[in-house]
């Protein structure tokens, strides 16, 4: 089991190496790695407070700064991540309410779990 965990950590580090150049400053670059590990780890709820606690910070200010104000290029990050294979996709009701996205995922036979609003029809 420890070998599997080490292999996963190595893959996360390799992925972060590909993303690291997108951050102009060292602090957000480093925080992005620990946040990535937190998102992929055992943190029960993936929010600013939980991630901050996971990475040893007393408040979510640094995590919020990374997501809201740090200078990095989300489009370039998306392009880097395009080549990363995934076993399944998840998303909140914003994505779940996007019927063309759901149909596209179904057409690719891509496993996914998207939240939908309770008023969203499930069958057409």
Structure description:
- By secondary structure, the chain is mainly α.
- It is 57% helix and 5% strand.
- It contains 7 helices and 2 strands, in the order H-H-H-H-H-E-H-H-E.
- It has helices at residues 2-20, 26-40, 48-54, 61-68, 74-82, 93-96, 99-107; strands spanning 89-91, 112-114.
CA-atom Rg in angstroms:
17 Å
> What sort of overall outline do the alpha carbons produce when their principal axes are compared?
globular
Helix content: 55-70%
Structural class: mainly alpha
* Count of helical regions: 7
Largest β sheet strand count, sense and barrel closure:
2 strands, parallel
Distance between the termini: 44 Å
Number of domains: 2
The tally of beta strands, per DSSP, is: 2
Unreliable spans are none
Mean pLDDT: 87
Adjacency order of strands in the biggest sheet: 1-2
Into which percentage range does the β-strand content fall?
under 5%
Task: Give the ordered list of helices and strands.
Answer: HHHHHEHHE
Structure described in brief:
With 124 residues, the protein is mainly α.
């Amino acid at each position: 089991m420890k070998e599997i965990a080490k292999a996963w950590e190595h893959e996360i580090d390799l992925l972060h190496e590909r993303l690291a150049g997108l951050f102009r400053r060292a602090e957000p670059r480093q925080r992005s790695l620990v946040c990535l590990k937190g998102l992929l780890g055992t943190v029960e709820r993936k929010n600013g407070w939980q991630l901050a606690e996971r990475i040893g910070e007393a408040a979510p200010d640094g995590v919020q700064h990374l997501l809201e104000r740090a200078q990095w290029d989300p489009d370039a990050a998306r392009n880097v991540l395009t080549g990363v294979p995934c076993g399944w996709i998840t998303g909140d009701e914003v994505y779940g309410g996007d019927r063309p996205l759901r149909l596209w995922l179904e057409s690719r036979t891509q496993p996914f779990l998207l939240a939908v609003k309770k008023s969203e029809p499930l069958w057409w």
